[in-house]
Design a protein that fits this description.
about 220 residues, alpha/beta, Multidrug-efflux Transporter Regulator, Chain: A, Domain 2, 2 domains, five-stranded mixed β-sheet, three-stranded antiparallel β-sheet, about 40% helix
Length: about 220
């Protein structure tokens, strides 16, 4: 899971000089091991997703879960559901409401899951921009669900979420994953489809569930999905 500067440069499609500049600015998560810089794959894709970085899907390839390409965002959303008019005044109350809607195994402690999501928010807002946030835990902690879950929740009223573009959020793509690889895959796919104009319009206009799923499905058919 540890990447070198050279490997990260290739995966993020930037120069090594840029990587070192980010390290100096402490704007990228990194570790120093025996006088060398190393990067955690999970933390990097988490950071890159929120920062809207153009990343290579090779970052998902670490030799495990060979069927990773079969993980479908559409299926994950069907597992999680699409909801409208969710009420909440801040991150905590919104995430409580979202978790209350999800069908999780009975032994999942939703309070612990909420705490893990809030800890991730304390590290930096998951506000993606343009009215969307992608709340999730820093690492997968619900390991006994059979498939990743992604819920799309439209808010009753926009909420200040500390997004990177400083705009209030009115839609949450909440991610719960059973493994590291499925976690990375879902974050990567969500970031990709949210850059598609038709998906953006469907989300902004809070269109019907089937229309949203249809636009996401079409967006994933284009090269790079």
């Amino acid at each position: 899971m540890q990447l070198s500067v050279k490997e990260l440069s290739s995966l993020l499609k930037v120069t090594e000089r840029t990587i070192y500049r980010w390290i100096k600015q402490q704007s990228i998560p990194f570790y120093r091991v025996h006088d060398q810089y190393r990067f955690n794959r999970v933390e990097i894709i988490d950071w890159a997703t929120v920062e809207k970085m153009n990343i290579s899907h090779r970052i998902l390839q670490d030799g495990t879960e060979s069927d990773i390409t079969r993980l479908s965002l559409i299926r994950a959303i069907r597992e999680g559901g699409v909801y409208y008019r969710i009420q909440g005044e801040d991150k905590k109350s919104l995430l409580e409401a979202v978790l209350g809607l999800l069908h999780l195994p009975a032994d999942v402690d939703k309070d612990n899951l909420l705490d893990a999501m809030l800890v991730r928010e304390d590290l930096g807002s998951t506000g993606f921009g343009e009215g969307v946030a992608i709340p999730h835990t820093r690492y997968p902690i619900v390991t006994h669900i059979p498939y990743p879950i992604v819920s799309i929740c439209f808010l009753e009223n926009p909420v200040d979420y500390g997004a990177i573009d400083h705009k209030p959020v009115n839609c949450l793509f909440t991610v719960i994953s059973p493994t590291v690889r499925s976690h990375l895959r879902m974050l990567s796919q969500i970031a990709f489809v949210l850059n598609n104009p038709a998906v953006k319009k469907a989300i902004t206009c809070q269109m019907a569930r089937d229309i949203i799923l249809g636009e996401i499905d079409k967006a994933q058919q284009v090269p790079g999905a």
